[in-house]
């Protein structure tokens, strides 16, 4: 499955429209890679190219599931929903501001003071693809 590149404000709006402003969706899984590693010779390799993938499912079709890949992650804030809080995303959008992409699980903007009350991410690059084959409860990034 090929990745769609988000480069412009029009690309951002196309994704927001395609996925219905994330209405009636859930953030099912998150996967993060720093890009750093230690090889078999125990030599450390440091790369400044962190990547995160978000898998979102919704109660609508065409598509029902999308995977968004954030490359060159600047910051990620992971905040599980408070107990008793409904985790359904009612409405939110991907934003592009000053060459930085921002997405949050609630309809916050990057400059909002209370955005740390939910999961959000900023990155320099965004890619996405439809993944209706991943509908359901089976783990994708965490198989066990």
Order of helices and strands: EHEEEEEEEE
Give the N-terminus to C-terminus distance in angstroms: 24 Å
**Domains (count):** 1
Q: Beta-strand percentage?
A: 35-45%
Low-pLDDT windows of residues: none
Number of strands: 9
Label the overall shape: globular
On the 0-100 scale, what is the average pLDDT? Answer: 93
Biggest beta sheet attributes: 7 strands, antiparallel
* Total number of helices: 1
Class per helix and strand makeup = mainly beta
Fraction of residues in helix = under 10%
Question: What Rg, in angstroms, do the CA atoms define?
Answer: 16 Å
Index terms:
single chain, 144 residues, mainly beta, seven-stranded antiparallel β-sheet, 1 helix, 9 strands, globular
Could you provide a short overview of the structure?
By secondary structure, this protein is mostly beta strands. 7% of the residues lie in helices and 40% in strands. The longest helix has 10 residues, at 9-18.
Describe the structure.
This protein has one helix spanning 9-18; strands at residues 4-6, 25-33, 37-38, 44-45, 51-58, 65-77, 94-97, 100-104, 120-130. With 144 residues, it is mainly beta. It has one domain (4-132). The strands form 2 sheets. Strands 1, 2, 5, 6, 7, 8 and 9 form a 7-stranded antiparallel sheet that branches. The model has no long low-confidence stretch (mean pLDDT 93).
